[in-house]
Every structure is written in C-alpha cells, then in structure tokens.
Amino acid sequence: MFEEPRYEAGTPPPHVRSAKRTNHYTSFPHLLVCDAILSLHFKRARAGNATSLGTCLDASRKAMPVVQQILRQDMCDSAFAYSAVAWAHMFRVFATEYQRLVALGDDEKAQLVIPELKVLSKALGQRTAASERTRTIIAGLKAAFPTLQHEYGMF
Description:
With 155 residues, the protein is mainly alpha-helical. It has one domain. It contains six helices and no strands. The longest helix is centred in the N-terminal third of the chain and has 23 residues, at 24-46. The radius of gyration is 15 Å and the shape is globular.
C-alpha cells in the first residue's frame, strides 16, 4: 500500500542557480501553481497515499528554486503576501516527509530534507518584518513540528 520514500540516499537535493534576476510577476504564478497542487494532494498524502505524497514532494521541489532565488535577491519582505502561505505549505510537506522518515528510522534520508526546510524557514523569517500574519504562520509550524526547532538554522 505504501511506496518507498522519494528521497534516495546520497542524492543531493536539486538546486538550480540562475544569474538572471527574477521579479514577482514571473515567480508568483509558479508558486501559485505549486501551492494549488499541494492543496489538492496534501490531505491524501497525510492519510498515507504514496502517489499524493510524491506529487506534493515534486511540487515543493519545483518551487524551491524560486524561493532560493527570492532569498538570493533579498526579496522576501517585498514578496506577495500569499507567498508566505505557499512557503508554509511547502514547509509542511517537507516537515511531514522528515517526520515520516525519522519514524521509519531512516535518519540518513531524513537529513536530506533539512536543507529545504532551512531555506523555507529563512524565507519565512525574513518575511516576518513585513507581515504579522507570517509570525502567526511560523508559530503554527513550530507547534506542529516541535522536533525541528532543535535543528540549527530552523525558525
């Protein structure tokens, strides 16, 4: 019924670097599409559906280069307000996968998820200067995933 985890040991997470600058009008629709996929599949993924879990992980991975580019350009505080919600949804997907892998006793694969979580945590943290709502989102994530608070660079 359950498939094997999507992360492979020894395979680094995909990172795309671009010398081009991004703007909100080109990056935000990409985040919206990925967030829509997460909204459609996350409940089924949490219920144990491996296909939905894989879909959520793929959508989150596809959005990560955009988040990384926004961080590199120091644009988090000027990003669209909904960006923080999309980033929180992505964080929730990666954190759920992290907890699942830890519960299976596969700490090596679980550590492969940490870089994405740190990037999203940093983006959300930078967004708090511009939005009180983001502080509320972070508080909710801290409550939902207390084990991640002990990771260096998280929250």
